[in-house]
Amino acid sequence: MYDITIVLDRLRSAHNTGNIFRIAEAVGAKEIIACGYTPAPPHPKLAKTAMGTDKIVPCRTMENSLQAVETLRAEGCKMILCADALPGSVPAWEKEYEFPLAVIFGNEALGIAPETLAAADGIVSLPMAGIKASINVGNAAAAILYAVVAKRKLQEKNP
To answer: What pTM did the predictor assign?
Structure first.
């Protein structure tokens, strides 16, 4: 298990949230924090997509993602990153991570709340070659979280 917290900022889709629960369980994440109107367990559509991981991965809810950042800092989180394709972001596989780590994923239309972006320690992204330059938040979470785990395994192998 890795000391990774996944923060979901105003995700609309219970299916996307359920998918991220599966990813969280697969990478050994510590917990999910569902912010704003992000669906959280118990939720029938989330449960269907999560396939039981909503009962395995701990989940808390918070009013907004800035509250999650402030709470995680108070709890000793060393690095809090936003996942977004914004100018100045670092490709997820190039970032050096510190643990405990939190990664924030935002609403597909609205992104991550601006005040949360400002409070975070940085931004990681998946460089896009296509014209649309957009992928589903669940797919982005999978790619980014596996990049984090791969970097962590390399750090453990080569201290």
So the answer is: 0.96
